[in-house]
Q: What sequence folds into this?
């Protein structure tokens, strides 16, 4: 897990501005709070293909009824 303040958009260095509690990327101009940063990182994470087999099974099971 990366704990360094790296911009999720451009991998540039993020600066933390204590007075506004925002992270600022000087490279692409990203300006986000800690929560928004986590949110962006969450969305950029590769989607796990979890659940597709379960839903196929569910459809089969439902069609049997
Ligand atoms: Zn950036």
A:
């Amino acid at each position: 897990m990366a704990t360094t303040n790296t911009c999720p958009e451009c991998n540039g260095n993020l600066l933390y501005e204590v007075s506004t509690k925002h992270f600022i990327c000087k490279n692409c101009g990203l300006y986000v709070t800690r929560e928004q940063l986590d949110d962006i990182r969450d969305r950029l994470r590769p989607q796990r293909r979890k659940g597709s087999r379960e839903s196929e099974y569910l459809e089969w099971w439902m069609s049997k009824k």
